[in-house]
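Hi,

Apologies if this is the wrong queue. I'm a grad student, and the batch job for Nucleoside transporter/FeoB GTPase Gate domain-containing protein from marine sediment metagenome produced an output file that my downstream script rejects. I'm not sure whether the problem is my script or the file. Here is the sequence I used:
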Amino acid sequence: MDSQEVLRAKDESLTHLRRVYGDEAETVIADGRYGFISGLMKDVLRKPAIERLTLSDNIDKVVLNRWLGIPLFLVILFGVFQFTFVASGPLMDWIDGGFGWLAEKTSAISPGWLSSLVADGIIGGVGSVLVFVPVIFLLYIALSILEDSGYLARAAFVMDRLMHRIGLHGRSFVPLMLGFGCNVPAIMATRTIENPKDRLVTILVNPLMSCGARLPIYALFAAAFFTAHQGLVVFSMYAIGIALALIMAWIFRSRLVPGESGHFVMELPPYRLPTITGVAT
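Support response: The file is valid. Your script probably expects a header line. Output copied below for reference.
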């Protein structure tokens, strides 16, 4: 049997499976495999009469609820941004004050032309950049805590239903979340998406996710024009980016690269307290 005959036999088998079972071959094979495993476990395993639910199971009843899952995710995301700005405020003031003091001392002991270059140019320029480091640092810490605790995997599972409605699946959610940190590694993370069409659409919409480099710009405008609602304004900017990404993904998936989305299976890790090592890495 040559290669062409093998390919024809493969296509015929896929068509037969779709016609008989009404689903994709990957799903049919996975269902058969898990069905065999489930039957085998029933034959060889003995379970206690009353199966006790773990703490993770009880938490998942709320976190993975079809009605509460997405609103809870949005509340947690808003809390992350609120925490970021509230906690970083004193650090930003301290850094800004330190560079202001340094510029003042430099101006007092330097000639006029050198004073302007060093105080306003070098010290002022570096200070205006470093003053936003606490915001970015605390945002990364908060996202690392969510990942290390096991919640981000649940967030991907919760978003799977919404992803399917726009033609993607839950595996695309993780690269999109990584886009909050940096779009470059987020696009590299799309290599884990097996379906090439899902991977292409995820790459195309990823730049709409607001990366860490844009956070200082958002923070600058929020502090200048919306002092009393900085967290809410920045959260809204991120939410608008997410909404645009979902809309463009639906347009791309329905017009540019039409076709059925791949199926999503993932293992949910148990909840655990974040560790310093896990958050730092």
